[in-house]
Amino acid sequence: MNSTNRIEKFIWVLSAVLIIAAWFAGRYIEEKSSLEHIKEKLSKSSLEHIKEKLSNYAEIKQSTPNSFLAFKKGLRNPIAFITKGEGIGYGGELSILVEVDTIAHVQSITLINQKETHSFLKKVLNKGFLDGYKKLNLKQFIDNYNFPDAVSGATYTSRGIHQAIMNAIIPIANTQFSIELKTLNERNFVFGLPEIVLILLYGIAFFLNFYKSKRTKLIRWFTILASIIFIGFVARKLLTLSQIGGFILGFWPNFYEFTFWYILLFGLILGIFVKGNNHYCDWVCPFGNTQELLGKIGNAKSPKLKFRNQLRWTQRFIALAAIVLGLIYRNPSKTSFEVFSGLFVFIGSDLLFIALALIIILSLFIKSPWCNYLCPVKPSINYIQKFREIFLKK
Amino acid sequence: MFPHSTILGPLFWIAMGLLYFFMFISARYWLKDFGITMNKRKWLLVAFYFIFINLTIGGAFTLIGEDEFRAGVYFLGIFGVISIILGVSLWRYLIASKKA
After folding, report:
1. How far apart are CA B91 and CA A360, in angstroms?
2. Set of chain B residues whose Cβ sits within 8 Å of the Cβ of A360
3. How many angstroms separate the CA atoms of A165 and A135, rounded?
4. Integer angstrom CA distances of residue A294 from A149, A225, B81, B86
5. What are the pLDDT digits (tens) for A152-188?
C-alpha cells in the first residue's frame, strides 16, 4: 500500500509539471495579433468582397495595436478602417475584425480567434448572427438600436461576439467619425433560480456530511430531480473540461454575469478542503444524477471487473491528455469530449448523440458508466482531492 | 414493398397479422409462466407500451421511407431510447408483483 501511495504521489507531481509545461508551451506557440496574422486571416476569408478589396489595397498600416488603415494605391487617405475587438464567450476570449468604410458603414465582420465549443459556435453562425451587424451605419449602434437577439442555447457565445463587435466599433466610431458610442454597460448581477438551487444542493450536501438524517433517501430523490430539472434543463450549466482548461488559462469571467460558476467552484473547493468530498459529482452534476435516476429505474449494478483499476487510470490519463492538449493549443473546448450538451441543450454532432444514447441505455444496467469510466471532470476533481490527501494530511 | 409482385404484399401482411395474433395470445401464457400476476391496470400499461413501440418504429421507418433519412434516424434514436427506458421501467413494475 505504501509503494502505491508513493507512485500516486509521483504521478500527481508529474501531472502538475506536465500541465505547467503545457501552459508555457501554449503561450510560446500562441499566435500573436500581428499584422501578418490579420492579413492571413483576411486573405482566407470566404467573403468575396474582402478578397477583392485585398487585391485593391496597396497596403494595410497599423495605426494602434488594435486598428489598421487600408490604403488604395496612389491614394493618401485610407479607404477602410479595420479594427479588432475582444469579447468573452463561453470558452474564453474571442477576437473579431470589423471592417468599416469611410462613410461609417460596417462592411464585414470576421471571427479571427475563439475558444468556443464547435457546435455552439456553428449554431450561432448558421443563424446569421453576424449578418445582423453588417451594412449598419455606426450611428445605428447608439443604445436604442435592436441588435440581433442572442441565439437560444448559445447565449454566452452570442454575447461574447456582440461584446467583441462593440469593443471593435466604439474606438473607431469615437476617433474617426466623431460618433459618441458609449462603452458597454456592466451587466446586472445575475442571481436567479439556478443559483438558488445550486446553493440549496450544496447546502444539503454539507448538511448530510455532518448530520445523519432518517429522510436521506427522500432528500436524495429531491436533489436528483432538482439537479436534473433546474441545473440541467433550465440553467443548462454543467462543469466541463473546457471550463477547467479555461480557468487554468486564466480565463476568470466577470463575477456579475457568471455568478453561477463562482458559486459552483466555491462549493466544490469548500467540500474538498473541509471533508475531502466531491460534492459536485455526488450531488450537483445533472448528468451524473440522470445516470443515477436511470440506474434506480433499471436496478443498475457495479460490474465486478478484474481490470477496474486499469480502467480508472485510463480515464485519468485521457483527462490529463485532454487538459494538456487544450493548454498547448490554447483552446480547451477543442479537446473537450463530454456528451452533456446533447441531453440538456440538444446540440452536438451525430457521434455525440450516438455516444449519449449508448450511455443512457447502459446507465439502466451499469451504475453511472460515464462518471466511473469516461468522464474527464471527475478525475480532474479527484486530482484536487489528492492534493488535500497528499499535502494536507490529517 | 414488393414492386414486381401483386401477391407477396398481401401475403406479407397476412403473416404480420398472424404474428401479432400469436404474440397477443401467447403474451398471457408467457407472463403466467414467468409468475407475473396481471391485472387490468398492468394490461393497459402493456398495451400502451406496445402502441408506443409500434409508433416509434413505424414513425422512424416512415420518415426514412419518405426520403427523410436523417429525421428518421434521429426519431428512432430519441424515441428508441425512450422506449428502452419505458420498457425497463414497465418490466421492473411487472416483476415487482412477482417478488411480492
Report:
1. 17
2. 81, 85
3. 13
4. 36, 12, 12, 10
5. 778 888 888 888 888 888 888 888 888 777 665 555 6
A103 min Cα distance to partner chain B (Å)? 47
Which is nearest to A312 in space by CA: A260, A246, A372?
A372
Question: CA-to-CA distance for A106 and A126, rounded, in angstroms?
Answer: 20
Position A82 scores a pLDDT of 84
Of residues A393 and A300, more confidently modeled: A300
Q: What is the DSSP letter of A131?
A: G
- From B96's Cα to the closest Cα of chain A, the distance in A is 12
The span from the CA of A372 to the CA of A366, in Å, is 10
Q: Determine the angle formed by the axes of helices A377-391 and A241-248, rounding to 10 degrees.
A: 50
Residue A64, beta-bridge partner list? A67
Q: Tell which wins on pLDDT, A74 or A234.
A: A234
Q: Are A124 and A108 contacting, i.e. CB atoms less than 8 angstroms apart?
A: no
Position A149 pLDDT exceeds 50: yes
Distance CA(A329)–CA(A322), nearest Å, equals 11
How remote is the C-alpha of A221 from its chain's centroid? 30
Q: Strand A93-101 relative to strand A57-64: parallel, antiparallel, unpaired?
A: unpaired
Cα–Cα distance measured from residue B90 to residue A371, given in angstroms and rounded to the nearest whole number: 26
Residue A6 has which C-alpha cell? 508513493
Question: To 5 degrees, how large is the angle CA A248–CA A249–CA A251?
Answer: 100
Residue A61 DSSP SS3: strand
At A260 the three-state DSSP class reads helix
Predicted ipTM of the assembly: 0.85
pLDDT at A275 over 90: no
- SS3 assignment, position A94: strand
Between CA A121 and CA A383 the distance in angstroms is 30
- Return the residue of A nearest to B80 by Cα: A357
Rounded CA separation A245/A19 (Å): 10
Residues of chain B with Cβ-Cβ distance to A294 below 8 Å are 85
Task: Please report, for residues A100, A101, A140, A167, A276, the alpha-carbon distance to residue A136 in angstroms, rounded to integers and kept in the order given.
Answer: 10, 11, 7, 16, 55
> At which residue does the C-alpha cell 402502441 appear?
B51
For residue B83, what is the nearest residue in chain A, using CA coordinates? A361
User: Cβ contact (<8 Å) for A357 and B92?
Assistant: no
The whole-angstrom distance between residue A188's C-alpha and the CA centroid of its chain comes to 21
B92 contacts A297? CB cut-off 8 A: yes
Contacts of A210 (CB under 8 A, 6+ apart): none
| Chain B CA closest to residue A349 | B74
Q: How far is A243 from chain B (nearest CA, A)?
A: 28
From the CB of residue B17, how many other CB atoms can be counted at a distance below 10 Å?
10
